[in-house]
Amino acid sequence: IRFNAAFLYALGSFAIFIVGGLTGLQLGAVVADVQLHDTYFVVAHFHYVIFASVILGTYAAVHWWFPKMFGRMMNETIGKIHAISTFVLFNIVFAPMFVLGFAGYPRRYSGFGHIPLFQGYEWITDFISAAAILLVLSQLLFVFNFFYSLMAGKKADNNPWEATTLEWLAESPPPHMNWGATVPVVDRDPYEYAVDGVDYLPQGRLVPLPVRE
After folding, report:
1. In 2, 17, 100, 130, which residue has its Cα 20 to 30 A from 160's Cα atom?
2. What one-character DSSP code corresponds to residue 211?
3. Residue among 13, 15, 11, 39 at smallest CA distance from 26
4. Averaged over 79-108, what is the pLDDT?
5. Residue 141 in contact with residue 78, Cβ under 8 Å?
6. How is the chain split into domains, by residue range?
7. Structure confidence by residue, pLDDT tens digits, 134-147
């Protein structure tokens, strides 16, 4: 296991998605959903599912495939800072919404200062708004990292991650026909476990294309 930026994005996505899945159980139970339906609990649950699977998943994929697509590496330090800050700020924004939901705080309203029952929760919505602004601003790190690395990133090897599948045998970025004048030969499954004395075992190798006479 290598704790690079792509791994941190994927790990954060997995952790957030677990919360989204577990909170869906309450919404699927009639007894609980009577209280939680159309409250901030639903908003939090939705974002814990969608943000994890779509946003963080996309960040992980872009960081992983960037060297193969463009032949350059994304900055690892900036990537790690962005992954951690996004994970932390996301939870700061949406975790308090579960508290609001349990209190019966309904969604789709701009404010509840005129309702005595909810006046004690106004500070939480203000806190969420401030954290949401920071969450949006932190995404500029990814935008900067993407374009900076595109122009000035370190040149990538063909397989900087030591991945075992065939596409990582191609040059970065791949030429026409992917492998140029060579062709991949598959020797084994891409994910071999318990191979003694070997930490990195590619799925195949490249051999020259046969010359037609």
Report:
1. 17
2. P
3. 39
4. 94
5. yes
6. 5-152, 160-213
7. 999 999 999 999 99
